[in-house]
Amino acid sequence: MKSSIAGLVGILALALLAAGHYLGLGWAVGAAMVLAAVFGLGWPHYLGIPAKKTLGSVIALTGAASALTAGMSAGTENLSWTPMYIAVGFGAVMVVQLIRGTGQKHRLESTLGAGAGVAIAGFAGGWVASLRFLGEPGMTLIVAISATVALLSGMLRWPDRVLAPLTIVLSGLAGPLAALLFSDVRIVPAMVLGMLVGAVIAAFHRLRTLAGMSPSRFGMVAAALAPVLSLGTLVYFVEKMILH
pTM for the complete prediction? Predict the structure, then answer.
């Protein structure tokens, strides 16, 4: 999958998640669950590890459970169940790795890769928690617009040593602009948030470049969704730090 297509997949996912502020909590929960499930089922294909269906189901269920409980939990700690789901998911990954009969030489790499997928899928619940905590779209739009700018810059066929700093700078500039248009967040926190978003996107882009092309298009879709889902917890906890 080319960088341009991967960027478009990420932008579409951002649009679906950000739309939850306008279409309601049910939409946000459903979108996060679907995206987490797609990511989870595709991630083992991207890594090329054995037991793809079993590990994919574990990752997908972790993300779906995190998003669902973030939408249903009482009180203000909407991600209180997410660490437990990630821990259980990682434990399930280890059990699968212990009982499977193929690929023993790469068992450690498979465990770490699938465990990272469990964490990323669990972070998807942060998008839902952000909606419930804030109730208005300002901070989410800052993250979504900064991430969109970062994904668009990632489509350029430039060396990563040039593209990564450019991505961070452009995202840092997009954050204050989005803050001025859509929220009352101050310029400096918005710039810092935009730069953090750009750094996350640039890091995943570099990892995808180092890993090379995957033979599975399903796996490449999961790789494109990974940075977007990871941003869920970032926006949630940054909101809590800035607003409280």
Answer: 0.89
The token pair at 122 is: 């669990």
* Distance from C-alpha of 20 to C-alpha of 24, rounded to nearest angstrom: 5
Instruction: Using alpha carbons, select from 75, 83, 67 the residue that is nearest to residue 125.
Output: 67
- Give which of 233, 238, 243, 241 is closest to 78, Cα–Cα: 233
In whole angstroms, what separates CA 204 from the centre of its chain? 10
Q: What's the 3-state SS for 38-54?
A: HHHHHHHHHHCCCCHHH
Helices (H), the chain: 3-18, 20-23, 25-47, 52-72, 82-99, 107-123, 125-134, 138-154, 160-182, 187-211, 217-243
- Residue type, position 236, single letter: Y
Q: Which residues of 46-69 are buried (b: 16+ CB within 10 A; e: fewer)?
A: bbbbbbbebbbbbbbbbbbbbbbb
pLDDT in tens, 17-54: 988 888 888 999 999 999 999 999 999 999 888 888 99
Which distant-in-sequence residues (6+ apart) come within 8 Å of 40 by Cβ? 56, 57, 58, 59, 60, 61, 62, 63, 64, 117, 121, 222
